[in-house]
């Protein structure tokens, strides 16, 4: 099996193309100050979690990934670049942010393997064409653990995987996810250029998930 980290490096041309494509995102405060190379290295944590969980190489992973709250397209676009057989859906509630995604995917020539989707995940996750249709759901700083879990879990098939970046202080909550009534078989924490949590779905979903925002706040899936 080949390395679980991103294949090689982005070329100078790809870095320059992405920097130009994402310049408006930086100006708008969507992307922050991290360089494309920094973002690529951070994305290695997602790639490693996915490939090690499914016991495949990057070249062989051919699953469907959804990046929820993708912003300018991180990590989804970079995962699509690193996983040449994967199909990636990039979802965000703000159409303006998705304009940055479209610029980025044109820069990397990823239009054939990526889908840009506008809408609220707590609504889209109830649609038949999206519910339980993905092998992997990823998120980067989307929300607190309970909120992130409820929003992402209904998108992945049984046996599928959630991979999220997390703060160190959130880890006790994430570890609690496999100890309660939730359909989570395992929680794996890994360190790289950041902290990553991978959760394997195992079991049936409650049909109401994800609930409306007020209900999620009033009775979160994980203890505070």
Give structural notes.
- By secondary structure, the protein is α/β, with parallel strands linked by helices.
- It has one domain (12-218): 3-Layer(aba) Sandwich (Rossmann fold), CATH 3.40.50.
- It has helices spanning 12-21, 23-27, 36-54, 76-82, 95-108, 121-124, 145-152, 171-176, 213-218; strands at residues 64-68, 87-92, 114-118, 134-139, 156-165, 184-192, 194-201.
- α1 (12-21) runs antiparallel to α5 (95-108).
- The longest helix is centred in the first third of the chain and has 19 residues, at 36-54.
- The termini are far apart.
What is the count of structural domains?
Answer: 1
**First and last CA, distance:** 40 Å
Tertiary shape:
globular
* Average of per-residue pLDDT values: 93
How much beta, percentage-wise?
15-25%
Lateral strand order in the biggest sheet:
3-2-1-4-5-7-6
Q: Determine the CATH topology.
A: Rossmann fold
Q: Which stretches are poorly predicted, pLDDT < 50 over at least 5 residues?
A: none
How many beta-strand runs?
7
What is the CATH superfamily label?
Answer: Vaccinia Virus protein VP39
Write the layout of secondary structure elements.
Layout: H1 12-21, H2 23-27, H3 36-54, E1 64-68, H4 76-82, E2 87-92, H5 95-108, E3 114-118, H6 121-124, E4 134-139, H7 145-152, E5 156-165, H8 171-176, E6 184-192, E7 194-201, H9 213-218
Can I get a quick summary?
The chain has one domain: Rossmann fold. The chain contains nine helices and seven strands. It has helices at 12-21, 23-27, 36-54, 76-82, 95-108, 121-124, 145-152, 171-176, 213-218; strands at 64-68, 87-92, 114-118, 134-139, 156-165, 184-192, 194-201.
């Amino acid at each position: 099996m080949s390395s679980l980290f991103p294949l090689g490096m982005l070329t100078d041309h790809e870095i320059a193309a992405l920097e130009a494509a994402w310049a408006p995102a930086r100006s708008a405060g969507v992307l922050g100050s991290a360089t494309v190379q920094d973002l690529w290295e951070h994305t290695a944590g997602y790639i490693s979690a996915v490939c090690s969980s499914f016991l495949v190489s990057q070249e062989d992973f051919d699953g469907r990934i959804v990046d929820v709250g993708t912003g300018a397209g991180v990590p989804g676009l970079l995962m699509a670049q690193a996983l040449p057989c994967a199909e990636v859906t990039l979802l965000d509630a703000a159409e303006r942010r998705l304009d940055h995604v479209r610029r980025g995917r044109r820069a990397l020539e990823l239009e054939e393997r990526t889908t840009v989707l506008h809408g609220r995940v707590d609504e889209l996750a109830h649609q038949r064409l999206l519910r339980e249709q993905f092998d992997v759901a990823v998120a980067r700083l989307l929300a607190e653990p309970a909120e992130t879990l409820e929003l992402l879990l209904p998108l992945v098939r049984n046996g599928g995987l959630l991979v999220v970046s997390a703060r160190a202080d959130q880890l006790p909550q994430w570890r609690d996810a496999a100890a309660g009534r939730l359909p989570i078989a395992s929680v794996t924490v890994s360190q790289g250029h950041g902290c990553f949590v991978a959760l394997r779905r195992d079991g049936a979903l409650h049909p109401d998930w994800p609930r409306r925002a007020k209900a999620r706040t009033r009775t979160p899936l994980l203890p505070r």
